[in-house]
Specification:
single chain, alpha/beta, four-stranded parallel beta sheet, two-stranded antiparallel ribbon, 14 helices, 6 strands, 53% helix
């Protein structure tokens, strides 16, 4: 990795084949053209998981002149982290981060970046409806002429149903994430055979006991973690599990896993319109993300602008860019 002096480095989670780098570069260039971000040099770097943030930032601190004054930026999924944990991390002082060669982690305000795409149901419907109805080449995407048109309302009905069906799965994923984070010994929960709240309670209590031997009994204090999650103010898990139709749709779009929800929408839209040869990755990379990158009113673009603006402005001040 080549490190340049007056370049702001932005680390993101992801693999080389994922669409985030190309999308973020398009968005940043659009924001710069519209003078919503300062015209500085920057580089977006995918580094796999968030566990690689600090090891990568150490390399940058050693060679970057700009990052002697501004911490390396890292954008991370919120995952199932609590708001209190995120606020605690956000309060860290820039000078301390630079001295310790640690990244400044900025969290999406939703579970992950795909959650913002769940607000773009009108755009998604329009894109699907524009797919050609006849084959124009062997590798082209097309759909059979069904006479169907996809609507924003239809997509949102599918999304609501998906969320209502997913509450107990999402609770278990939240529990798995919090256990791994708090156990801090790379321990993970086993898979559970039957997803119900009583089963999860019994399963989790036994897992804490079983795995305590692997961590020298240090995780016994996590016995109450499941109950703490269930009664947290972020999300009314037990109430929604017992009454799925009362699920808060807006909160589900924020706190549930957006990628899985978006994949489900993609699958249902394909089936409804009889679309052929439109894989999920193609749908993201070639359709929705390029469309949203051009629109500074889209929620994800506004979120990126808000996240990056203070650091772009600091970099502009330090490098003398007006």
């Amino acid at each position: 990795m080549r490190i340049l002096d007056n370049t702001l480095y932005i680390l993101i989670e992801g693999e080389p084949t994922s669409p985030e780098v190309a999308f973020m570069n398009r968005v940043i260039e659009t924001l710069k053209e519209q003078e919503l971000l300062s015209n500085i040099n920057y580089e977006v770097v995918e580094i796999g998981g968030s566990g690689n943030f600090n090891s990568t930032s150490k390399l940058i601190y050693r060679k970057s002149k700009l990052h002697q004054s501004i911490p390396v930026i890292a954008i991370s999924d919120r995952d199932f982290r609590t708001q209190e944990e995120i606020e605690q991390i956000s309060r860290k002082v820039n000078a301390d981060l630079i001295r310790n060669k640690s990244a400044r982690i900025i969290y999406w305000k939703r579970h992950e970046w795909e959650n913002f795409l769940l607000e773009e149901t009108e755009t998604i419907a329009n894109l699907f409806n524009q797919i050609s109805t006849k084959k124009t080449g062997e590798k082209k995407t097309y759909r059979k002429d069904t006479g169907n048109n996809l609507t924003k309302l239809q997509l949102e009905q599918w999304l609501i149903q998906y969320f209502q069906d997913s509450i107990i799965r999402e609770l278990f994923e939240c529990l798995k994430f919090q256990f791994r984070e708090n156990a801090n010994f790379r321990l993970t929960l086993n898979q559970i055979e039957s997803l119900s709240l009583p089963n999860i309670r019994t399963f989790f209590e036994q897992q804490v006991v079983d795995k305590s031997s692997e961590s020298q009994n240090r995780i016994l204090g996590l016995r109450n973690m499941l109950e703490d999650i269930i009664i947290s103010q972020n999300f009314q898990w037990e109430s929604y599990i017992n009454n799925p139709h009362e699920l808060d749709f807006q909160k589900a779009k924020i706190f549930f896993r957006g990628k899985e929800a978006l994949k489900d929408l993609h699958t249902k839209a394909n089936k409804y319109l009889k679309v052929e040869h439109l894989e999920y990755d193609c749908f993201c990379k070639q359709l929705i993300l390029p469309e949203l990158a051009k629109n500074t009113n889209s929620l994800i673009v506004q979120e990126l602008a808000e996240m990056l603006q203070p650091y772009f402005q600091q970099a502009a001040n330090l490098t003398g860019i007006k």
